[in-house]
Amino acid sequence: MLTSFLRKYKWSYKVSNFFNRKKLLHNTELYKKYNLKKNYYSSINSQDFEGINGQEPIMDREDCAQLLPQQERFNNLDKKTQDSLLKWSKDGFVILDSFFQKEEIDLINKEVEELLLTKKIKWSKNRILFAIKKSKLLKSVATFPKLKDCIELLMAKEMDLFQSINFYESSQQRTHSDSIHMTTFPNGNIIAVWVALQDVRLEDGPLHYYPGSHKLPYIMNKDFDNQSSAFKLGNKSYQDYENKIEQVLQENTHLKKEVFLAKKGDVLIWHANLLHGAQAKIKPNASRKSMVFHFYASDAIAYHEITERPTLK
Which helix (DSSP H) or strand (DSSP E) does residue 190 occupy? Predict the structure, then answer.
């Protein structure tokens, strides 16, 4: 109870930030670039950037179907992968079928099991965070050269691996955008990669997403009346944010939900603002093993909109 109470106050984060200087210096030069009067430990939110020009990634402003074929890196990819990437600007996601071989996925699953047995990683609620810091094998999956080519072609810039999340079962999380959790200025400078570690059936609680929803305005604190004061964070709950997203979808009836029944080894790459979530499990004990990677652009300010805390890298 005390921890929850303290987390409502900005100073509690500032104190923690103060002692994490090395992990927060990535933003300081960019603060100067945009004339923001911020210390490395300062709170920051989307309203700090009002009136400041910052260009979103070029594939958000132009059509990747026109731009990608001009890149040598793109033309070195196989035709199947090329065809998938060309849909990015329109859909906000890419599916790479059978990107990893089943034998490679078996090695990943075995590695996770061994890390759990040796207590090098542990479950936090229903997920494992940052397993890549404990395993060269798992980090090599995130930094696989062909995967790196794909995400950097889609973003048209260098991308830095930030985190990994392992799931044993469906998160059953309501529809959301990653940008409320991992926020950037300019907008859109984060990308997610999801790897299916098993075949996924409808009863397992598969991922869902709304093609084209990445083109909607970004929903930030002020959009669900969660503005903060000089000392205290906003009083709205995360459920209020999810309710706002539900309202946005009701207002944009042209957007249609799709459910991803992935096969073992499939990869899903999605845009920072793609609205997505996970279906409820029909079978209570069903597994849905997967691994997610998030990458930040190296030239963008990175922070967390809800807590107004700069990202620890």
Answer: strand 190-196
Q: What angle do CA 273, 201, 164 make, to 5 degrees?
A: 45
Nearest 5°: phi and psi at 231?
-115, -25
Predicted pLDDT of residue 281: 95
**Tens digit of each residue's pLDDT (9 = 90 or more) over 236-247:** 999 999 999 999
pLDDT single digits (tens) 68-97: 999 999 999 999 999 999 999 999 999 999
Task: Provide Rg for the chain, Cα atoms.
Answer: 19
Let me know: does 273 contact 177? Beta carbons within 8 Å.
yes
Total Cβ atoms within 10 A of residue 84: 20
In angstroms, what CA-CA distances link 90 with 93, 102, 195, 294?
8, 30, 22, 21
- What is the per-residue pLDDT for 3? 60
Instruction: Give CA 206 to chain center in angstroms.
Output: 17
pTM for this entry: 0.96
Average pLDDT over residues 135-154: 98
Distance CA 57, CA 62 (A): 9
For residues 192-202, b (16+ Cβ closer than 10 Å) or e, as one string?
bbbbbbbebee
Strand partners, 164: 293
CB 304 within 8 A of CB 155: no
Q: pLDDT at residue 4 above 90?
A: no
